[in-house]
Amino acid sequence: MLKLPYIAVRELVFSLWRRVRFGPVDPAWSWRTSTVRDVLAALTDEVIAVPPWLIPFVNRFVASGTPMSLGRVVRVGKADLDGVYAEVLTRPEADLTTVLFLHGGAYVVGSPKFVRQITSWLTWSLRARTFAITYRLAPRHRFPAALDDSLTAYRWLLDHGVDPRTIVIMGDSAGGGLTVATLVAARDEGLPMPAAAVCLSPWTDLTATGGTMETNVATDYLPAGKIPHAVAMVVGDADPTDPRVSVINADLTGLPPLQVFAGGNEVLLDSITAFVDKARAADVEVDFVVEPHMYHDWLTVLPGGVASMLTVERIADFVQAKVDRTVVRRQRGPRVVDA
Predict the structure, then answer these.
(1) Does residue 256 form part of some domain?
(2) CATH number, domain at 178?
(3) Residue 332 Cα to chain centre, angstroms
(4) Beta partners for residue 169, in sequence order
(5) Of 15, 46, 69, 296, which one is the catalytic site residue?
């Protein structure tokens, strides 16, 4: 873990040199896009191979270097959702659209703080109250701990008077897969469906299939060859094809409208596309957006970039069209304590 700062600086220097010497891998990439990809590739390759006992320390290191919120324009509070901690973000005069946000990080790292800049932008753009939960992480808490926590959080919102027609569940990467798993589990439990869901570069297939796992290695930062190591930490002795974690294998009938984003340069592109095809075959309404020159989870790793801000605008348009505005204006949200 102590090598991570050194690796980041070293790769930054090498990335800049490669850009000058050979140009960008994708001609459409800016200097920032190229450098972020190269640095993240080196760091992710290192992190994903660390011994399981080091993961909590890595998680603290990652969280310590992540950006904060938008400051005074978005208020940060906290809530206990039946034992699941949530960071709650609101904006002044919010109309109480409710977002349940599930962060990414391969079910191994990540936290609400890790995605706070993104949840801040979404909270502001959607005029929402966002509950970003701290679900339990592997390898200490293996599958299905994360799903149990996300479902508990959704139940809590319903039990505290939040109308499901005003709820949107969304997540990035592993959180995108967890979003779909939460919908399926809620449906099977007989709970009402939320208004919609948004999946950003969702990890839908833990078996890592698809041709882009090979063809997009040079344009993404995910170490495709080491994904099985992460999967082993997540599922342990369980079956990685279990539909509760590899949602591409789930029965998707009856799910609410989905908005799914994928990067044209990411290794998960084929598996995400296959998931979208299956959802549409199950008569689920899907707005599928492929950002042609982006790699995995660009909204999180390139906050403030042109593609990221365009993505936020697309999410806002989608959510505004799906949430019941008449209910939003009438309801009150659950009580939140300042952080």
Answers:
(1) yes
(2) 3.40.50.1820
(3) 27
(4) 100, 197
(5) 296
Task: Tell me which of 266, 271, 291, 308 is the catalytic residue.
Answer: 266
Question: What is the per-residue pLDDT for 5?
Answer: 78
Distance CA 297, CA 195 (A): 23
Tokens 């982006």 found at: 294
State yes or no: is 296 an active-site residue: yes
Q: How many domains does the chain have?
A: 1
Q: Of the residues 69, 111, 150, 173, which is catalytic?
A: 173
Residue 11 annotated among the catalytic residues of the structure: no
| Tokens (6 digits) for 172 | 């990035």
In a domain, 338, yes or no: no
- Is residue 95 assigned to a domain? yes
Q: Is 17 inside a domain boundary?
A: no
Encoded tokens for 62: 């990652």
Active site residue 266: yes
pLDDT band at 235 (very low <50, low <70, confident <90, very high): very high
pTM for the structure as a whole = 0.93
Range of the domain at 228: 70-332
pLDDT grade for 171, boundaries at 50, 70 and 90? very high
